[in-house]
Design brief:
Shape: globular
CATH class: Alpha Beta
Oligomer: single chain
Largest sheet: 7 strands, parallel
Radius of gyration: 18 Å
Bound molecules: NADP nicotinamide-adenine-dinucleotide phosphate
Number of domains: 1
Order of helices and strands: HEHEHEHEHEHHEHHHE
CATH superfamily: NAD(P)-binding Rossmann-like Domain
Number of strands: 7
Strand order of the largest sheet: 3-2-1-4-5-6-7
Distance between the termini: 44 Å
CATH topology: Rossmann fold
Helix content: 40-55%
Strand content: 5-15%
Length: about 260
């Protein structure tokens, strides 16, 4: 029985270097997404920076991308709004000629015991994290070019089961389920789909509202004895997005310093 390999597809860039790979990064205005924008730009990507509300931060991300050597635009799009997300993809295609990589970093968190959580908060959280992921990867599944990659965001809390993370962790469990099925649905397209599941990572979204004692306790948990940084996670994303990471497909990558 023949063994099918395509070594030329592994080695060859998808297109000439004069036409760079194109990435869309949702949540690109802050935190992990912001750092990922700069990291991909340093690799020469043209980047469409998606953001929810903070135009100034999105523009700052664009400036950083240009300084890092890439091209970039900022596009406001609520990830749960299918029309806005379609317009984000349209803008990337119109400006840069197509889409090769989609990094869906936009997300929200809310901590409360299950017994006490306001169900309106639950609906709001799940609208962004579950519907938002579905809407973004639906567009990605239709549009990402061969050789490309889709990266979603879960959380290591899905495995760690910290108290108070019920609603958030449930939404990220849905992201993992969706991402693994997407990888299988993309058979024949030469496009990968993986979820990155960070542990505690020092972004504004993570640090907001946490006291010093909580941060010290969380930083002590991984054997590497610190919080993750946005740069730690951006490196993992850049690898998954690159031709070098293309054999990783349909996986949840728990990037957390070995936290248990
Ligand atoms: N930090 C951690 O410890 C950690 C751990 C595990 C998993 N994660 C996951 O990693 C991802 C990034 O986290 P982060 O800490 O970098 O987040 P962050 O600093 O809070 O930034 C969130 C980003 O998402 C955007 N956003 C929020 N709601 C949106 C919506 N409805 N539509 C479009 N964009 C929206 C925000 O845009 P604006 O600036 O315009 O509001 C911002 O760019 C999230 O999915 C998060 O759940 C984070």
């Amino acid at each position: 029985m023949p063994i099918h390999t395509s070594p030329d597809r592994i080695a060859a860039p998808a297109r000439p270097s004069s036409s760079p790979r194109v990435a869309i990064v949702t949540g690109g205005s802050r935190g992990i997404g912001r750092r990922t924008v700069g990291r991909l730009a340093a690799d020469g990507y043209a980047v469409a920076v998606g953001y929810a509300a903070d135009r100034d931060e999105a523009e700052a991300a664009v400036k950083e991308a240009v300084t890092a050597g890439g091209r970039a635009i900022a596009v406001r799009a609520d990830v749960a709004d299918e029309h806005a997300v379609a317009a984000l993809f349209d803008a990337a295609e119109a400006e840069f000629g197509g889409v090769d990589v989609v990094v869906h970093a936009a997300g929200r968190a809310h901590m409360a015991p299950i017994a006490e959580l306001d169900l309106a908060v639950l609906d709001d959280l799940h609208r962004t994290n579950i519907r938002g992921t579905f809407v973004v990867v639906q567009q990605a599944a239709r549009r990402v070019r061969p050789g490309g990659a889709i990266v979603t965001f879960s959380t290591s809390v899905v495995g760690l089961a910290f108290p108070d993370y019920g609603a958030y962790s449930a939404s990220k469990g849905a992201v993992e389920a969706l991402t693994l099925i997407l990888a299988r649905e993309l058979r024949g397209r030469d496009v990968t789909a993986n979820a990155v599941a960070p542990g505690p990572t020092a972004t504004d979204g993570f640090l907001d509202g946490k006291d010093e004692e909580t941060l010290t306790r969380l930083a002590a948990r991984p054997p590497l004895e610190r919080l993750g940084t946005p740069a730690d996670i951006a490196e993992v994303v850049a690898f998954l997005a690159s031709p070098a990471g293309h054999w990783i497909n349909g996986q949840v990558v728990r990037a957390n310093g070995g936290i248990i």
